[in-house]
Design goal:
With about 600 residues, the chain is mainly alpha-helical. The chain has three domains: about 120 residues, no CATH class; about 110 residues, no CATH class; about 325 residues, no CATH class. It contains 26 helices and four strands. It is globular and about 75 Å long.
Length: about 600
């Protein structure tokens, strides 16, 4: 008989169904109740723990064996999920069932995508299976054959040279024959594999005298050849010259990748429709920016007003004190307006850290959570960089960032989701994470949080910035905009300092963030805003109940948040259908702050 582990016990499907049927209070608990729980909590937590364990074991990138193991893992968990009777689950359990199905489907799609990327790199890295197999056998606890390993290492330099010769032959046929994007991907993968080779060697060297006798010299020669080849890929093919800033290349996922990622995020809009939404939101922001510009005496030249606001920064050394003042102000505001519960401990524990100059190259503004990381000049920076950093982190820009990063934004999110439905962190999405923080920028605007036209310029700058992120990131992944064009776009359409624009684009395309991450800020915010109109605007919930319910529900795509708060549990064959941004021309609200 099939058995499923629920709440720490192994239950038969029949018994599980009977227990759920006999517990109407649990099934009918409101989503706004802190006591609302999911019957699949333990199921999801076990999946997350098992997956994390496998990721630690199978950690060699682009390994075919790794992909095969994870495909089997996800299919096995899909079969386990199939054995749970959906009809017997309460509302929270049904949500988790749908989220698990979505998670497993997407993970397999990502493996398929990785396989396609690996195939594209074969011409650049035809020799890497040797390294992958070394580490794989070590991880399998198999004894090493020292002489055989030495022979394989000794062959690597020649194989690397043949790969280089073949690339040069293709380059001679025409530069379009060698992809700069794939070359960068290969160089990054090779860097990871060099680390694995070093780990493999150091596991045996010295501990096994026979191994060292055979392998010391072949290993040194092979690693030198690998390092030189990686330098060749980066310098000759990518254009990353020694001592110079690395060019921004990126790795677009294309239209098919966009569709898969949007489906996983439960977004029914096409990339083209999302770009159109962003253009509409930008137009709204620009109109408000012109209004603030006129108040400041700059007429319709809002870029001039923006330049004025950039000069209103604190002096060197004073930025941490400003952060504290702005954080306290935000907490007072949301508390006095009874917008969300702010636990005293959450307000007590957040901290400030200054960001290193190197880190500021990819994060020119603040980063946040329990620790807010602050960008501001250090005495070691070049003078022009100091000025740009102060201008880009002026007081009025910062006033719209601090609450985004701390309370009621990311810090409060993290604090609450560690305490309520923490199992749902496996379903985490930037549309929930970044969308929540951006949504608060919208709501506080509506509640007259900005005190002056300078404050409004600061808030509008960031809002325009988030619309621009949608446009340039989607356009890049669809092959319609280059990184250089994205930088120009941020400077010309949003008013970024060029160095900050370069850092923003580098951050977007250097592989640290998922392809939809930059889209998620504004689109996730618009989703929550629309849901706020449905529930708070209609009088069905108070602001505080609405916001607390989202935080207590845990991390998930916003369409599932909507199903939870509307108390409309999804069906087993759920398909995303929510069109949250309606056409203003038809008389509907767009959710864009109008």
């Amino acid at each position: 008989m099939a058995r499923i582990r629920i709440a720490g016990r192994f239950l038969s499907i029949g018994l599980l169904t009977a227990l759920v049927a006999a517990s109407p209070i649990r099934a009918q608990e409101s989503a706004t109740s802190p006591a609302a729980t999911s019957e699949l909590r333990d199921f999801v937590e076990r999946y997350a723990s098992d997956r994390a364990a496998l990721l630690r074991r199978w950690d060699v990138p682009y390994s075919a064996e790794r992909r095969d193991r994870f495909r089997a893992f996800y299919r096995d968990w899909g079969e386990r999920l199939d054995r749970i009777e959906f009809a017997g689950l309460g509302a929270e359990g049904r949500i988790d069932h749908v989220l698990m199905r979505n998670e497993l489907r997407y993970r397999i799609e990502l493996l398929d995508r990785e396989e396609r990327l690996a195939i594209e790199m074969d011409a650049f890295l035809p020799f890497v299976k040797t390294i992958i197999d070394f580490e794989g056998r070590r991880r399998d606890r198999e004894p090493v054959e020292a002489a055989e390993a030495a022979a394989s290492l000794a062959e690597l330099p020649e194989r690397i040279e043949r790969a280089k010769d073949e690339i040069e032959r293709r380059r001679a046929d025409g530069p379009e024959e060698v992809s700069r994007i794939v070359a960068l991907r290969a160089a990054n993968a090779l860097s990871e594999l060099e680390t694995r080779l070093e780990r493999w060697y150091e596991h045996y060297a010295g501990y096994d005298p026979t191994f060292t006798w055979w392998n010391e010299e072949p290993y040194a020669t092979a690693t030198s050849a690998l390092e030189a080849y990686r330098g060749y890929l980066r310098e000759e093919l990518v254009g990353a010259k020694e001592g110079e800033e690395e060019p921004i290349v990126g790795d677009p996922i294309g239209a098919d990748g966009m569709r898969a990622d949007l489906a996983h995020e439960m977004i029914v809009y096409t990339p083209e429709e999302l770009i159109e939404i962003a253009e509409r939101e930008y137009a709204w922001c620009e109109a408000r920016m012109i209004e603030a510009s006129r108040e400041l005496g700059y007429g319709d030249d809002w870029l001039a007003a923006l330049e004025h606001v950039k000069t209103l920064h604190r002096d060197p050394g004073e930025q941490p004190q400003m952060i504290r003042e702005l954080a306290d102000e935000a907490v007072r505001f949301v508390t006095e307006h009874d917008l969300v519960t702010v636990p005293a401990l959450a307000d007590e524990i957040w901290r400030i850290e200054m960001m290193s100059p190197e880190r500021q190259k990819v994060a020119p503004f603040f980063l946040g959570g329990e620790v807010i990381q602050v960008s501001f000049p250090t005495d070691a920076m070049e003078h022009a960089d100091k000025l740009m950093s102060m201008r880009g982190n002026n007081e009025h820009f910062s006033r719209a960032v601090v609450h985004h990063e701390l309370i009621p934004g990311h810090h409060l999110q993290g604090f609450m989701t560690e305490r309520y439905n923490a199992h749902r962190r496996v379903f985490s999405t930037p549309f929930w994470g970044e969308g929540w923080a951006l949504y608060w920028e919208m709501l506080l605007w509506d509640l007259d949080f900005p005190r002056s036209p300078e404050d409004r310029v600061g808030m509008l700058f960031w809002r325009m910035h988030r619309t621009a992120r949608i446009i340039f990131s989607l356009s890049f992944h669809l092959g319609r905009m280059t990184p250089d064009e994205a930088i120009d776009f941020l400077v010309e359409r949003v008013g970024h300092e060029r160095a900050n624009a370069e850092a923003e684009v580098r951050r977007s395309f250097n592989g640290t963030y998922s392809p939809l991450y930059q889209v998620a800020y504004m689109i996730g915010g618009l989703q929550i805003r629309r849901l706020h109109e449905e529930l708070v605007g209609s009088g069905q919930m108070t602001n505080r109940a609405f916001h607390d319910a989202i935080l207590r529900g845990g991390r998930m795509p916003i369409e599932m948040v909507r199903a939870r708060l509307l108390e409309e549990p999804p069906s087993e064959d759920f398909r995303p259908a929510w069109r949250f941004y309606e056409d203003p021309a038809r008389g509907s609200t767009s959710g864009g702050g109008r």
